[in-house]
Amino acid sequence: MAIRFEKIVTGRFGNPEASTLAGYEAAGGYQAIRKILGKAEPKNVIELVKASGLRGRGGAGFPCGLKWSFVPQSLNPKYLAVNGDEGEPGTFKDRELMIRDPHQLIEGIVVACYAVGIAKAYVYIRGEFDAPWRAVERALGEAYAKGYLGENILGSGFGCDVYAHRGEGKRGHPRLKPPFPAVVGLYGKPTVINNVETLSNLPHIVNNGAEWFAGIGIDEKNTGTRMYCVSGHAARPGLYELPLGLTCEELIYEHAGGMRNGKALKAVIPGGASAPVLTAQEVREGKVRMDFDSLAKAGSMGGSGGVIVMDETACMVQAAGRLARFFEHESCGQCSVCREGTGWVSEIINRVEAGRGRADDLATLASIDPNMRGNTICVLSDACAMMFGAFLKKFHREFEAHVEQGRCPLGSPYPA
Ligand SMILES: Cc1cc2nc3c(=O)[nH]c(=O)nc-3n(C[C@H](O)[C@H](O)[C@H](O)COP(=O)(O)O)c2cc1C
Ligand code: SF4
Fold it and tell me: 358: which residues sit within 8 A by CB, 6+ positions away?
């Protein structure tokens, strides 16, 4: 099936000037806000984004316009929190959007603020992201100086302020929902939370229309492109902006150069650490497509767009152990099943990988899995369970062989 393809958010990546205000303007930038501020009804902008089918690129794939429509219009102030944390292992797209096209993000933020009636936006940038931080700070200065931010933008009567906030290494403290952030969020006020890539799509939707956007992708629920972050054993790992709905095999073999050194594909994690692993057989026989709904149907998820490709030499116990360490490290500790569960899972899997697995370790892992699902404040615990549950189920024989032989049957070094 031929899918229409056009680059959207990375369209200016080949143009280094595009990161400056002059370069962005010369490449057609800031036309979207000229088109709508003071001219279009904000509720019509929400309808436009709904009609485009744009879904969140941060992880959950929630429809963007629908999320905006949950914000009570009468409650003020309202905030926009821009998620530039890019915390999911395997994902490396938002940093590039912030470095290479920061004005695209800023224009997207103004579109979102106008649509929802927001006067203040905060861009949360991962603490380690020095270059993205500097790029966004510089672009904010340029945008303020030219009147694209602040009071009365372009004489439209609409104003909004955007602040960049750099992560300081403090622990996140998720809280129970409901109430959802759309009603009670930042400072107890209605808050929209959107990912950097999601927002970067908005100027293009405003400029080219909902139909144009919806025409890229596989169906009306999976529209536009994704920035697939291909890592691991592909011959050409890297960032590929491609339409939603191409197959996993097309992504690996036609775009990412196939497998490194001509080795056989063994497994793919299609959407960052939280997305359940797919076997090569599932990918091949199921002709798995890389859109939100196809991946959900295949028992995984599109998540953050991080595509981790593993060849026949990869040890699945080692891969699961690595990811388990990530979840253990990220657990904030508020929920006991997550705090204890992520720690135990990491300890057991890494012990099995190191050749010190005990006879009952695999049964213990299988018994921890259901307890970690559906019982916690946020979905980090579920994500950990989905991750190791899939590895354990789909590569059970490999786990057993580690325990039986007291070493990695593939001879993978430990720790790698
Ligand atoms: C444990 C956890 C980690 C997350 N990490 C990120 C992240 O690094 N970046 C991101 O944009 N969203 C992340 N999300 C999703 C955000 O909570 C939020 O849903 C998203 O930023 C919303 O934007 P979107 O609707 O535009 O995708 C994470 C969610 C969870 C539960
Ligand atoms: S599930 Fe884990 S990370 Fe999420 S709130 Fe509970 S302890 Fe914290």
Answer: 351, 403
